[in-house]
């Protein structure tokens, strides 16, 4: 038994493109985001205000944010790692600020160059400043289901980080299977524990499909009453730790499954496929099953 309404957050323009080896031309990103804005989606993560040397693929975040056509029914969000990032995000009036850190000490250090303990006060101040600017705040927790350096992650660590993020005012938590190692039984086990402490409405799931388990994981999360999921058009993204592997859970595959189950998302599948076909000209491989089927039919 599951809810018949699910909210999907499109992360392709950020999580998808940050893992592409080539930078997609800015004008193409803008055109593509405009297509996504017309798909019925309520949320698009358009870029990252991180250091351009760390993620050069998204160094045009300011220009993208300025030039896209904003649909009033869409929340336009971006990743923000620190106060410099927030300044840049506020300059272009981003609607929602997405904080991020890792449940793994090693991954956090490699990703944002700080220990978890040193990251939290930075995020707290970004959260406070975002609220002052009337922005909603999202908090990503990475490597919840496993880390490329440390392996298994203790769920108590995840709970402690989630608790701190909520205390600093974060409106929603996104639990990341950053490298796509989660299996359905593990998702059940982790959610069982997390839901003892946090209301299901505060949780979103961010699955990567590296090993083909993302949809199965979604199904389990639905059973636990979770109705917020992140996904990327065409399964963009790949995985920096597994060359050739699938990327984020594909929005088109997620829509295929949910819509046929009678779940309402408000998103038009046809528009998402068109957006996937558009961005395909600029990226290496789209891994979604919908795109593979489409190509085999051509
Ligand atoms: P750092 O080098 O430690 O930064 O990087 P710093 O504070 O020491 O500053 C060094 C210089 O960078 C300074 O300039 C700053 O002004 C500048 P200088 O004085 O030397 O000329 N700087 C900035 N410039 C532009 N924008 C900024 C910014 N901040 C500092 N925001 C930092 C620390 C966090 C900035 C860096 O490590 C970084 O940008 N990391 C981002 C990495 C990233 O984006 N990773 C991928 C996203 S996370 C993810 O994908 C997981 C997720 O999808 C969920 C899941 O799947 O689990 C979300
Ligand atoms: Mg991700």
From TrEMBL:
SUPFAM superfamilies to which the protein is assigned, alphabetical: Aldolase
PROSITE patterns documented for this protein:
PYR_CT
* Region: Disordered, residue numbers: 1-21
Q: Which Pfam families match?
A: HMGL-like
Which terms under GO biological process does the entry name?
ketone body biosynthetic process; L-leucine catabolic process
Keyword Lyase listed: yes
Family membership, please give it: Belongs to the HMG-CoA lyase family.
Protein's UniProt name: Hydroxymethylglutaryl-CoA lyase
Species assigned in the record: Virgibacillus phasianinus
């Amino acid at each position: 038994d599951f809810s018949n309404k699910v909210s999907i957050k499109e992360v392709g323009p950020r999580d998808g493109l940050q893992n592409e080896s080539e930078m997609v031309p800015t004008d193409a990103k803008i055109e593509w985001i405009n297509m996504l804005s017309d798909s019925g989606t309520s949320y698009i993560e358009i870029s990252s205000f991180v250091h351009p040397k760390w993620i050069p693929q998204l160094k045009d975040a300011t220009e993208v944010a300025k030039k896209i056509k904003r649909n009033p029914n869409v929340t336009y969000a971006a990743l923000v790692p620190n106060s410099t990032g927030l300044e840049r995000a506020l300059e272009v009036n981003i609607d929602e600020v997405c904080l991020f850190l890792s449940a793994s000490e090693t991954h956090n250090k490699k990703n944002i160059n700080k220990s978890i303990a040193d990251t939290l006060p930075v995020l707290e101040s970004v959260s406070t400043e975002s609220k002052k600017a009337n922005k909603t705040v999202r908090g990503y927790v990475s490597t919840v289901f496993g880390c490329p350096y440390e392996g298994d992650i203790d769920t108590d660590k995840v709970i402690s980080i989630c608790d701190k993020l909520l205390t600093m005012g974060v409106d929603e938590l996104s639990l990341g299977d950053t490298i796509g190692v989660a299996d359905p039984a593990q998702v059940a086990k982790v959610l069982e524990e997390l839901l003892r402490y946090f209301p299901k409405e505060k949780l979103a799931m961010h699955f990567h499909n590296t090993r083909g388990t993302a949809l199965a994981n979604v199904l389990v999360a639905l059973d636990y009453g979770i109705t917020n999921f992140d996904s990327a058009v065409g399964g963009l993204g790949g995985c920096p730790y597994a060359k050739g592997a699938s990327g984020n859970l594909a929005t088109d595959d997620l829509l295929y499954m949910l819509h046929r189950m009678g779940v309402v998302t408000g998103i038009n599948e046809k528009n998402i496929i068109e957006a996937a076909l558009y961005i395909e000209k600029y990226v290496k491989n789209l891994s979604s099953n919908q795109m593979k089927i489409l190509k085999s039919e051509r």
